[in-house]
Amino acid sequence: MRSKQKIFVAPIIYLLFILIPIYWLLIMSFKTNTEIGGSVTLYPHQPTLDNYLFIFSDKSWYMGYINSIIYVLINVSLSLIVAIPAAYSFSRYTFFGDRGLFFGFLTFRMMAPAILLIPMVQIFSILELIDTHIAVALAHCFFNVPIAIWILEGFISSVPKEIDEMSKIDGYGLLKYFYKILLPQISPGIAVTAFFCFLFSWVEILLSNALTLVYAKPIGAIMTRVASVFIANISILSAAGILTLIPGVIFVIFVRKHLARGFSMGRVG
Amino acid sequence: MMRKSKDKIAYLLLSPALLVMLISGVIPMSMILYYSVHDSFYGNNFIWVGMNWFQQVLSSSEIYGAFSRSLGFSALIISIEIPLGIFIALRLPKEGFLSNLYIVLISLPLLIPSIVVGHVWKFLTLPEIGLISSGIGYLGVTYDMNNPLIVWITLALMDSWHWTSLVILLCFAGLKNIPEAYYQAALVDGASGWSVFKNVQLPKLKLVLLIAILLRFIDSFNIYQEAYVLTRGGPGVSTTFLSHELVQTATIQFDLGEGGAMSVIYSLVVLCVSWVFFSLIVRKNNA
To answer: What is the reported pTM?
Structure first.
């Protein structure tokens, strides 16, 4: 009996640790600033939807969410599209510099966004892409493409090579092989990769803020602006914070079954 | 090990990834290298200055302070999140509805943008009206965000809250991939819980763990937004990290040369530490 209890106590305590700050944010989003400033209350005494209504009625606010979702989705698709053939190449072929190239990709995952800030602004200015979703999506590739290749390489290597040869005998070209055989086989890997790309792109703000001005401003940047202007506007920021959780939650519900496989088969060495 | 084939098509398959990385990684990094050894006037007319910027960066005492704070923060974060992550992952239910529910709930903090994370913890620790500060205040202790120790505790709590889930997910995945036969064998041998962990689970987890350590090292060493929202680098410079110094130099002073040299040093440090982790992974994987 003792061991049975031990199994569940620790995760429950940990869940409380995770959920209490989220609960706190949630109840503040239904409070008025007066109530927040008055005293600590564990639930909203006069619940209000004003904070949410404010966000949904102000174009710059709700467009912030849409902008973030757009560039994250572009980034996830772009990362997958370029990483799947690259991972296949690393998994199936030997070629000059393959090992070096594989680790070369990974070194970029180690760079801080702060380092690349200035050159990226200059590059995307030259390309006339400043203030577009594509600029942010491309910028986020330096940390997402390497991780995508890393995860996918593991999944592709676990697909037996005999399947490649059989499909060749059946007269499948490379494209048809990818589409008909490889992709269905590695679909859990694609889900896991998409989750991690989504995650790292969704939480990043330094680059996404620097590369946008008005039309593609992410929600995080709009929150910063409000936070610096109205120091006391905690209730709006709380509602905005709660809303940033929603896209991720929808995403994670879709991929939850595959998450347990994660990086466990990644290649190293 | 399967035999791999040699083929020119390998390069063709790699080319889209290379093109994307050229724009978002290689070219920006080359520009940084170029700036670090040149001086510029108004962002053009570049003049070769050799190692001058590096000497200047390395002779300022601020950088050493920021550097040791960043490294200390990473060490602190890894020593909290990795053991905690393993501990929780070992105790999660392996199958069924409850397991899925845990996975979804545990993933929640990972899906919150860093800036929101900063705000959440700022609100939690606001004097008088924050949950943590008033809760602690109830016990008769002041939760003083002007005290560097308290600020560091808050930062560590915040980062653990945000990222321990990543370690849990990775370890959970690693544990699930251990074949049932291993446990059966251990059971037959009459192994205790601890020796199952030490002799069966931990060796199988080594690879995943080192990946987790690597990712947590990189991202905690690069911490920027959360810490900035929470503390603005203060009190004093007690939470000013390397990334804050860098953004300050590069964007606010717009000092391309000094910022470039700092970036190069910064990257070399991350690369060296990561390389140590990597060689560990490779050795462990081959052993």
So the answer is: 0.88
